[in-house]
Amino acid sequence: MSFLDKMFASIGIGAAKVDTILANDRLVAGDEVNGRIVIQGGKIDQDVDDIYLKVMTSYEQEIDDKKVHKECVVGKFRLTERFTIKAKEKREVPFSFELPIDTPISYGKTRVWVETGLDIKNAIDPSDRDYIEVHPSPLMSKVFNAVTDLGFRLREVECEAAPFHARRRLPFVQEFEFVPTKGEFRGRLDELEIIFLETNRNYLELLIQVDRKARSIGGLLSEMLNLDETNLRLTITNDNAHNIKDMLYQVIKKYS
Questions:
Q1: Entry's PANTHER family (predicted)?
Q2: Which helix (H) or strand (E) holds 139?
Q3: What are the extents of the domains in the chain?
Q4: pTM: predicted TM-score of the whole model, two decimal places
Q5: Which of 156, 239, 243 is nearest to 194 (CA)?
Q6: Which residues contact 1 (CB under 8 A, 6 or more apart)?
Q7: Maximum distance among all alpha carbons in the chain?
Q8: pLDDT confidence tier of residue 213, bands split at 50, 70 and 90
Protein backbone atom coordinates (compact mmCIF):
# COMPACT_ATOMS: atom_id res chain seq x y z
CA MET A 1 0.00 0.00 0.00
CA SER A 2 1.83 3.10 -1.21
CA PHE A 3 1.77 6.54 0.31
CA LEU A 4 0.32 7.90 -2.94
CA ASP A 5 -2.54 5.38 -2.83
CA LYS A 6 -3.38 6.51 0.72
CA MET A 7 -3.21 10.16 -0.26
CA PHE A 8 -5.39 9.69 -3.34
CA ALA A 9 -7.91 7.61 -1.38
CA SER A 10 -8.18 10.41 1.20
CA ILE A 11 -9.49 12.73 -1.52
CA GLY A 12 -11.73 10.09 -3.07
CA ILE A 13 -9.49 8.82 -5.87
CA GLY A 14 -9.24 5.04 -5.83
CA ALA A 15 -11.32 4.91 -2.62
CA ALA A 16 -14.23 2.65 -1.71
CA LYS A 17 -17.53 3.27 -3.50
CA VAL A 18 -21.07 2.66 -2.31
CA ASP A 19 -24.26 1.87 -4.24
CA THR A 20 -27.70 1.33 -2.74
CA ILE A 21 -30.19 -0.91 -4.49
CA LEU A 22 -33.79 -0.47 -3.35
CA ALA A 23 -36.24 -3.36 -3.61
CA ASN A 24 -39.03 -0.83 -4.26
CA ASP A 25 -38.85 2.92 -4.84
CA ARG A 26 -42.62 3.53 -4.71
CA LEU A 27 -43.80 3.68 -1.14
CA VAL A 28 -46.30 5.04 1.36
CA ALA A 29 -45.09 6.63 4.58
CA GLY A 30 -44.94 3.90 7.20
CA ASP A 31 -43.97 1.20 4.68
CA GLU A 32 -40.88 -0.96 5.10
CA VAL A 33 -37.99 0.14 2.92
CA ASN A 34 -35.89 -2.86 1.89
CA GLY A 35 -32.78 -3.27 -0.18
CA ARG A 36 -29.06 -3.83 -0.07
CA ILE A 37 -25.95 -1.68 -0.02
CA VAL A 38 -23.08 -2.73 -2.27
CA ILE A 39 -19.65 -1.55 -1.14
CA GLN A 40 -16.78 -1.87 -3.59
CA GLY A 41 -13.31 -1.62 -2.09
CA GLY A 42 -10.82 0.71 -3.73
CA LYS A 43 -7.06 0.45 -4.14
CA ILE A 44 -6.34 0.26 -0.41
CA ASP A 45 -7.87 -1.20 2.74
CA GLN A 46 -10.09 1.36 4.48
CA ASP A 47 -11.69 1.35 7.92
CA VAL A 48 -15.41 2.15 7.78
CA ASP A 49 -16.68 3.55 11.08
CA ASP A 50 -20.32 3.55 10.07
CA ILE A 51 -22.81 2.89 7.31
CA TYR A 52 -25.90 5.05 7.49
CA LEU A 53 -29.05 5.66 5.48
CA LYS A 54 -30.85 9.00 5.59
CA VAL A 55 -34.29 9.81 4.25
CA MET A 56 -33.97 13.35 2.91
CA THR A 57 -36.12 16.08 1.45
CA SER A 58 -35.89 19.84 0.95
CA TYR A 59 -38.02 22.80 1.92
CA GLU A 60 -38.13 26.55 1.46
CA GLN A 61 -37.59 29.20 4.12
CA GLU A 62 -37.94 32.93 3.67
CA ILE A 63 -34.90 34.80 4.97
CA ASP A 64 -34.56 38.57 4.43
CA ASP A 65 -37.37 38.49 1.85
CA LYS A 66 -35.61 35.76 -0.12
CA LYS A 67 -36.61 32.13 -0.41
CA VAL A 68 -33.79 29.80 0.60
CA HIS A 69 -33.78 26.07 -0.11
CA LYS A 70 -32.75 23.85 2.79
CA GLU A 71 -32.29 20.10 3.04
CA CYS A 72 -33.83 18.19 5.92
CA VAL A 73 -33.13 14.76 7.39
CA VAL A 74 -36.52 13.05 7.81
CA GLY A 75 -34.95 9.92 9.30
CA LYS A 76 -31.47 8.47 9.84
CA PHE A 77 -30.64 4.79 10.28
CA ARG A 78 -27.30 3.27 11.32
CA LEU A 79 -26.67 -0.15 9.82
CA THR A 80 -23.38 -1.67 10.95
CA GLU A 81 -20.54 -1.59 13.44
CA ARG A 82 -17.03 -0.61 12.38
CA PHE A 83 -15.37 -2.85 9.79
CA THR A 84 -12.58 -2.83 7.22
CA ILE A 85 -13.31 -2.97 3.52
CA LYS A 86 -10.34 -4.62 1.86
CA ALA A 87 -8.83 -3.42 -1.37
CA LYS A 88 -10.95 -4.65 -4.31
CA GLU A 89 -13.32 -6.43 -1.90
CA LYS A 90 -17.05 -6.40 -2.70
CA ARG A 91 -19.41 -6.52 0.26
CA GLU A 92 -23.21 -6.41 0.41
CA VAL A 93 -25.19 -5.24 3.44
CA PRO A 94 -28.96 -5.89 3.47
CA PHE A 95 -31.20 -3.36 5.19
CA SER A 96 -34.79 -2.78 6.22
CA PHE A 97 -36.29 0.25 7.95
CA GLU A 98 -39.65 1.95 8.30
CA LEU A 99 -40.20 5.06 6.18
CA PRO A 100 -41.09 7.76 8.76
CA ILE A 101 -44.83 8.35 8.94
CA ASP A 102 -44.36 12.12 8.43
CA THR A 103 -42.33 11.77 5.23
CA PRO A 104 -43.75 14.27 2.71
CA ILE A 105 -45.56 13.06 -0.40
CA SER A 106 -43.81 13.24 -3.77
CA TYR A 107 -46.21 15.77 -5.29
CA GLY A 108 -45.40 19.01 -7.06
CA LYS A 109 -41.93 20.30 -6.23
CA THR A 110 -41.39 17.85 -3.38
CA ARG A 111 -38.57 15.36 -3.85
CA VAL A 112 -37.63 12.62 -1.40
CA TRP A 113 -34.48 10.55 -1.55
CA VAL A 114 -32.49 7.97 0.37
CA GLU A 115 -28.89 9.01 0.92
CA THR A 116 -26.32 6.35 1.75
CA GLY A 117 -22.98 7.17 3.29
CA LEU A 118 -19.86 5.51 4.64
CA ASP A 119 -17.99 7.21 7.48
CA ILE A 120 -14.28 6.84 6.72
CA LYS A 121 -11.77 8.72 8.85
CA ASN A 122 -9.33 11.08 7.16
CA ALA A 123 -11.08 10.65 3.82
CA ILE A 124 -13.96 11.98 1.79
CA ASP A 125 -16.94 9.84 2.73
CA PRO A 126 -18.40 8.10 -0.33
CA SER A 127 -22.15 8.57 -0.72
CA ASP A 128 -25.04 7.59 -2.96
CA ARG A 129 -28.46 9.20 -3.57
CA ASP A 130 -31.58 7.30 -4.67
CA TYR A 131 -34.89 9.07 -5.25
CA ILE A 132 -38.11 7.45 -4.10
CA GLU A 133 -41.77 8.16 -4.84
CA VAL A 134 -43.83 8.62 -1.69
CA HIS A 135 -47.52 8.13 -2.37
CA PRO A 136 -50.41 9.30 -0.16
CA SER A 137 -51.87 6.91 2.37
CA PRO A 138 -55.39 5.54 1.73
CA LEU A 139 -56.85 8.16 4.11
CA MET A 140 -54.96 10.99 2.38
CA SER A 141 -56.15 9.74 -1.00
CA LYS A 142 -59.74 9.90 0.24
CA VAL A 143 -59.20 13.50 1.30
CA PHE A 144 -57.75 14.42 -2.10
CA ASN A 145 -60.58 12.63 -3.92
CA ALA A 146 -63.19 14.41 -1.80
CA VAL A 147 -61.64 17.84 -2.48
CA THR A 148 -61.58 17.05 -6.20
CA ASP A 149 -65.23 15.94 -6.11
CA LEU A 150 -66.11 19.31 -4.53
CA GLY A 151 -64.77 21.06 -7.63
CA PHE A 152 -61.20 21.86 -6.65
CA ARG A 153 -57.99 21.28 -8.61
CA LEU A 154 -54.59 20.80 -7.02
CA ARG A 155 -52.52 23.79 -8.14
CA GLU A 156 -49.33 23.63 -6.10
CA VAL A 157 -47.57 21.57 -3.45
CA GLU A 158 -44.69 23.00 -1.43
CA CYS A 159 -42.73 22.19 1.69
CA GLU A 160 -42.29 25.40 3.65
CA ALA A 161 -40.63 26.23 6.94
CA ALA A 162 -43.15 26.28 9.80
CA PRO A 163 -43.12 28.75 12.68
CA PHE A 164 -41.87 27.23 15.92
CA HIS A 165 -45.31 27.14 17.54
CA ALA A 166 -46.73 25.18 14.59
CA ARG A 167 -43.91 22.67 14.16
CA ARG A 168 -44.17 19.01 14.88
CA ARG A 169 -41.10 16.78 14.57
CA LEU A 170 -39.86 18.37 11.34
CA PRO A 171 -39.06 22.05 10.74
CA PHE A 172 -41.47 22.35 7.81
CA VAL A 173 -44.99 21.53 6.71
CA GLN A 174 -46.20 20.35 3.32
CA GLU A 175 -48.90 22.61 1.91
CA PHE A 176 -51.41 21.46 -0.68
CA GLU A 177 -52.97 24.41 -2.50
CA PHE A 178 -56.26 23.88 -4.36
CA VAL A 179 -58.27 26.26 -6.53
CA PRO A 180 -62.01 25.95 -7.27
CA THR A 181 -62.59 25.29 -10.97
CA LYS A 182 -66.24 24.22 -10.93
CA GLY A 183 -69.16 23.68 -8.64
CA GLU A 184 -70.53 25.73 -5.77
CA PHE A 185 -67.26 27.26 -4.59
CA ARG A 186 -66.07 28.60 -7.92
CA GLY A 187 -66.21 32.38 -7.71
CA ARG A 188 -66.59 32.28 -3.92
CA LEU A 189 -63.10 31.17 -2.92
CA ASP A 190 -59.65 32.12 -4.14
CA GLU A 191 -58.05 28.95 -2.86
CA LEU A 192 -58.11 26.18 -0.33
CA GLU A 193 -54.96 25.04 1.48
CA ILE A 194 -54.59 21.78 3.37
CA ILE A 195 -51.78 20.70 5.68
CA PHE A 196 -51.61 17.27 7.32
CA LEU A 197 -50.52 18.09 10.87
CA GLU A 198 -50.62 14.59 12.31
CA THR A 199 -50.77 11.35 10.38
CA ASN A 200 -50.76 7.63 10.86
CA ARG A 201 -52.43 4.70 9.17
CA ASN A 202 -55.73 5.28 10.94
CA TYR A 203 -55.84 9.00 11.73
CA LEU A 204 -55.33 12.39 10.10
CA GLU A 205 -55.43 15.85 11.59
CA LEU A 206 -55.93 18.48 8.89
CA LEU A 207 -55.27 22.20 9.03
CA ILE A 208 -57.51 23.80 6.43
CA GLN A 209 -57.19 27.40 5.28
CA VAL A 210 -60.20 28.82 3.47
CA ASP A 211 -59.28 31.90 1.43
CA ARG A 212 -62.47 33.77 0.56
CA LYS A 213 -62.69 35.64 -2.71
CA ALA A 214 -63.06 39.40 -2.45
CA ARG A 215 -66.53 40.43 -3.67
CA SER A 216 -66.79 44.03 -2.45
CA ILE A 217 -64.76 47.03 -1.26
CA GLY A 218 -64.92 45.54 2.23
CA GLY A 219 -63.87 42.21 0.81
CA LEU A 220 -60.89 43.77 -0.92
CA LEU A 221 -59.87 45.46 2.32
CA SER A 222 -60.11 42.14 4.17
CA GLU A 223 -58.00 40.51 1.47
CA MET A 224 -55.33 43.21 1.83
CA LEU A 225 -55.21 42.62 5.58
CA ASN A 226 -55.32 38.81 5.18
CA LEU A 227 -58.58 38.81 7.11
CA ASP A 228 -60.17 36.73 4.37
CA GLU A 229 -58.32 33.61 5.51
CA THR A 230 -59.88 31.23 8.00
CA ASN A 231 -57.84 28.46 9.58
CA LEU A 232 -59.70 25.34 10.66
CA ARG A 233 -58.86 21.91 12.01
CA LEU A 234 -60.53 18.69 11.01
CA THR A 235 -59.89 15.15 12.23
CA ILE A 236 -60.32 12.20 9.87
CA THR A 237 -60.27 8.61 11.08
CA ASN A 238 -61.06 5.24 9.57
CA ASP A 239 -64.39 5.41 11.39
CA ASN A 240 -65.57 8.61 9.70
CA ALA A 241 -63.66 8.26 6.42
CA HIS A 242 -66.85 7.32 4.57
CA ASN A 243 -68.15 10.82 5.30
CA ILE A 244 -65.07 12.87 4.32
CA LYS A 245 -66.69 14.65 1.38
CA ASP A 246 -69.64 15.86 3.44
CA MET A 247 -67.39 16.87 6.36
CA LEU A 248 -65.20 18.96 4.07
CA TYR A 249 -68.22 20.44 2.30
CA GLN A 250 -69.81 21.59 5.56
CA VAL A 251 -66.57 23.18 6.78
CA ILE A 252 -65.80 24.94 3.50
CA LYS A 253 -69.40 26.13 3.03
CA LYS A 254 -69.57 27.56 6.56
CA TYR A 255 -66.52 29.74 6.05
CA SER A 256 -66.71 30.54 2.33
A1: SPORULATION-CONTROL PROTEIN SPO0M (PTHR40053)
A2: helix 138-149
A3: 3-135, 138-255
A4: 0.82
A5: 156
A6: 44, 45, 87
A7: 80
A8: low
